[in-house]
Amino acid sequence: MGTEQRATGHSQIGEVAARTGLSLRTIRYYEEVGLVPPSARSTGGFRLYAESDVARLELVMQMKPLDFSLDDMRDLLEVVDALEQHPAGAERAGLLERLAVIHAAAEERVATLRRRLGVAEAFAAGLGERLDSGGPLPPT
Questions:
Q1: How far is CA 26 from the centre of its chain?
Q2: Helix axes of 89-133 and 70-83: crossing angle, nearest 10 degrees
Q3: Edge-to-edge strand ranges of the sheet holding 40-41
Q4: How far apart are CA 92 and CA 90, in angstroms?
Q5: Parallel, antiparallel, or unpaired for β 40-41 and 47-49?
Q6: Phi and psi (nearest 5°) for 43?
Q7: Where are the domains of the chain?
């Protein structure tokens, strides 16, 4: 990390990619679609990411396996950003309601993935039985 980045607490895109496991292209794409813009640019024009930017990328990464759309991701990031401002009253209630909807969708998608995983595990077990028996499955 360069002196400028160390002093500001920012990381360049390559360092963020290494930390998160995301490709440079994916990080740039998330910037293009407005999900995770870099916090700053170096004097040489390099993208610089703060820890809060990395946290946003990690949140997006958690939503990806659940097949949330870019709009869903954007909505969650908007809610999280707004809640970090410590709103009160009706505004806070509205944000928590939106968060509850996203939470319910996440729970539903996790349940679907668990069902699919069960089918996949049964399939793999069946193949293992075939291997153990030398080919055909024994009669049930």
A1: 12
A2: 130
A3: 11-12, 47-49, 40-41
A4: 5
A5: antiparallel
A6: -60, -25
A7: 1-56, 67-140
Q: The tokens 């292209």 sit on which residue?
A: 25
Cβ-based neighbours of 34, under 8 Å, separated by 6 or more = 74
The yes-or-no verdict on residue 137 having pLDDT over 80 is no
Rounded distance between C-alpha atoms, residue 76 and residue 91, angstroms = 15
- Measured CA to CA, the distance from residue 36 to residue 34 in angstroms comes to 6
Which two structure tokens, joined as six digits, stand for 57? 């990328």
What pTM does this model have? 0.80
pLDDT tens digit string along 12-44? 999 999 999 999 999 999 999 999 998 999 889
Q: State the chain's maximal CA–CA distance in angstroms.
A: 72
For domain 1-56, give the fold.
Multidrug-efflux Transporter Regulator; Chain: A; Domain 2 (1.10.1660)
Helices (H), 1-140: 3-8, 13-20, 24-32, 51-63, 70-83, 89-133
Q: 65: buried, middle or exposed (CB in 10 Å: 19+, 13-18, 0-12)? A: exposed
Look up tokens 């990390």; give the residue. 1
